[in-house]
Amino acid sequence: MQDLELKSANKSLSELGINNTAEVMWNLTPAELVEHALFNNEAVLTDTGALMADTGAFTGRSPKDRFVVKDAKTADSVWWGDINIPFEEEKFDALHQKMVKFLTDKKLYVREAYAGADPNYRLNLKVVNTLAWQNLFCYNMFLRPTSEELKNFESDFTIICAPEFEADPEVDGTRQKNFAIINLSKRMILIGGTAYAGEMKKGIFSVLNFILPHEKGVLSMHCSANVGQDGDTAIFFGLSGTGKTTLSADPNRGLIGDDEHGWNETSIFNFEGGCYAKVIDLTREKEPEIWDAIKFGAIVENTRFYEGSRTVDYTNNTVTENTRTAYPIHHIKNAIEPSLAGIPKNIFFLTADAFGVIPPISKLNKSQAMYHFISGYTAKVAGTEVGVTEPKTTFSACFGAAFLPLHPTKYAELFGEKMEKHQVNVWLINTGWTGGPYGIGSRMKLKYTRAMITAALEGRLDNVGFRKHSVFGVGIPESCPNVPDEVLSPRATWDDKEAYDKKARELGAAFIANFEKYKDFATEDILAGSPNL
Ligand code: ATP
Ligand code: MN
């Protein structure tokens, strides 16, 4: 039995300015954290042994309350704007001191972990939590040092996360009571006023998106990744809800990671040690790997039980559509260890096109690959407003602009270099609507999307004919194993062909309008990938 005293020997938070008078618990095991979470009334148990927690008022990240400290290090390197909102150094220091004071008499859970499965690019972390379940989230989501490594562990970046601590916007310089502030010089993230644990995960992702491309020449990517039995790596880029997690969990391939990766000279490596999967409408039939991962040690967030039971009702969206589970990657049977593999042979851009225009699978040439990478398109279904059925286009550079501290062209340049250097197939996959837009058509069947990806990975589309899409110019395969031919052509699935053509031109025009802002960067070669009206 490891006891608390032993685990925390020689460990102190004083270097963070935290001189805590209450209990500070270092690197508790999942079982201990579950006990604490239950004892503290932070969470309850489900009948699979998973811990179920609510994240409170925030059931997603709050991008408008996410700041980056503007100082000598970042002033000229960070891409300032709505995504990277500047925060004053002095305000950060004052807020830090205020938080430290707040934490003095609180029970704290501290976790030492790291991000980056490649030892050359690893970032050692120290996370200070007030909530046991959030510390378990960090155990699940970050990489776990061995007990030997923990003995002399030196952290290089700190997260202080205290959901109960609220800022005073007028004094502290925040927009609201909640905040997530990244300080790249002090190497610290402060989070308060929100219990959405994803802020910690995406905070560290943003940090790596600064450090790796800017300081180490490594491309950081918002993508999932898996590897076949022959060692062929595939990566899946896509905005939230487009299928990165779902489609990377493939019983025939080793899972590298579900959300954040680096691409260095020789490999693709996971930043994380766990997966954070959406669970709305989850069924064992459609997503057995994820279903089976929700066992003891896993966390489910913002879900509800069937009445009178401890069985999670995954159809229940009364708290949010964004219900989630966080589990360590070894809960997926075929996850590989360590989480890295060779240069990708196939790259998939996932889009959930709610207009039903983009083909369910198409092949991109190099220009189109660059163009679509920079565009980062998806379309969200209409909000909850009654009567609003028109989907909304979303363009998010590099399929993850929300997490990019540098200008998107920095990532695009690195991506372009990799494309030049390696022979990679690039595919555009529409996991969204078919047979018409949202409201008329229906979502592409998961089994078809899986079959298309499998066919691409197995080289079974190498010898079929391709037709050019009239607007996007991308290559649509004429046939695909285990997929009916008519599903492959979006136009064929629409009853009203004219309506399809009109919508396709409208979407093409939206791409072109969005791309205006990259015109200084866009070479002729990249522009050759643009839609043709
Ligand atoms: P995030 O960045 O927020 O983690 P993600 O890209 O990982 O998002 P997923 O968690 O994989 O997205 O979510 C995709 C959702 O869409 C899942 O709930 C999945 O069941 C559902 N879905 C329905 N049809 C499809 C399809 N054809 N392909 C992929 N996913 C589908
Ligand atoms: Mn995901």
TrEMBL record:
Record-stated family: Belongs to the phosphoenolpyruvate carboxykinase (ATP) family.
Subcellular location: Cytoplasm
InterPro entries in the record: PEP_carboxykinase_ATP, PEP_carboxykinase_C, PEP_carboxykinase_N, PEPCK_ATP_CS
PANTHER family: PHOSPHOENOLPYRUVATE CARBOXYKINASE (ATP), PHOSPHOENOLPYRUVATE CARBOXYKINASE ATP
Gene from which the chain derives: pckA
Keyword Nucleotide-binding on entry: yes
Reaction equations catalysed: oxaloacetate + ATP = phosphoenolpyruvate + ADP + CO2
Enzyme nomenclature, EC number: 4.1.1.49
GO terms, biological process: gluconeogenesis
Biological role stated in the UniProt entry: Involved in the gluconeogenesis. Catalyzes the conversion of oxaloacetate (OAA) to phosphoenolpyruvate (PEP) through direct phosphoryl transfer between the nucleoside triphosphate and OAA.
Cofactor note: Binds 1 Mn(2+) ion per subunit.
Annotated protein name in UniProt: Phosphoenolpyruvate carboxykinase (ATP)
A Gene Ontology molecular function term of the record: metal ion binding
UniProt-annotated binding residues for ATP: 202, 222, 238-246, 287, 324, 449
Keywords, comma-separated and alphabetical: ATP-binding, Cytoplasm, Decarboxylase, Gluconeogenesis, Kinase, Lyase, Manganese, Metal-binding, Nucleotide-binding, Pyruvate, Transferase
Keyword field contains Protein transport: no
Binding site residues for Mn(2+): 202, 222, 259
Pathway: Carbohydrate biosynthesis; gluconeogenesis
Signal peptide (from-to): none
Pfam families, sorted: PEPCK_ATP
Positions of substrate binding: 61, 196, 202, 324
Species lineage: Bacteria, Pseudomonadati, Bacteroidota, Cytophagia, Cytophagales
Cofactor(s) listed: Mn(2+)
GO cellular component terms, semicolon-separated: cytosol
